């Protein structure tokens, strides 16, 4: 049985999803760095991490420390099958995986991540002009409706 939601957030989108999912499933939610105070290594969790350069932040650590029942990656791109496959392959995910669209908040990004995102965004916008505004100004696409699939999965499997 799932004991908690463990998350790794950078600009707050993943935290927002962890809180909403915790409320929907009546589960506590903990940042990865504080979870060890509340959970044992044998505890089952849902892991949520933000995505940068096709890597889900905190995934390897969470997978080593806990029994992850499913993984959620939170990123800026719209949801697509190709994007999900890329993330599953790049992160070696064997557990059920759910992609949730988060957003970009340039005010909260720091250091090299901010610089790299600005550089990469120019190339992305050339390939996908529909994403121009989000990469220029940022945006927040967090929505409780985006959690419907994971909530249904957890309830269906009674985990």
From TrEMBL:
InterPro entries per UniProt: Flavodoxin_dom, Flavoprotein-like_sf
Domain of life: Bacteria
Name of the featured protein: Flavodoxin domain-containing protein
Domain Flavodoxin, first and last residues per copy: 5-123
């Amino acid at each position: 049985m799932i004991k908690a939601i463990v998350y790794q957030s950078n600009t707050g989108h993943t935290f927002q999803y962890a809180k909403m999912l915790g409320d929907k499933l009546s589960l506590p939610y903990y940042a990865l760095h504080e979870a060890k105070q509340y959970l044992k290594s044998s505890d089952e969790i849902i892991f949520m991490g933000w995505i940068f350069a096709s890597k889900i932040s905190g995934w390897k650590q969470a997978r080593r420390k806990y029994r992850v029942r499913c993984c959620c990656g939170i990123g800026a791109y719209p949801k697509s099958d190709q994007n999900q496959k890329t993330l599953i392959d790049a992160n070696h995910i064997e557990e059920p995986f759910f992609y949730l669209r988060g957003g970009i908040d340039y005010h909260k990004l720091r250091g090299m991540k901010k610089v790299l995102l600005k550089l990469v965004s120019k190339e992305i916008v050339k390939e996908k002009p529909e994403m121009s505004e989000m990469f220029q100004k940022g945006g927040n696409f967090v929505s409780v409706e985006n959690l419907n699939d994971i909530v249904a999965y957890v309830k269906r499997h009674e985990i």
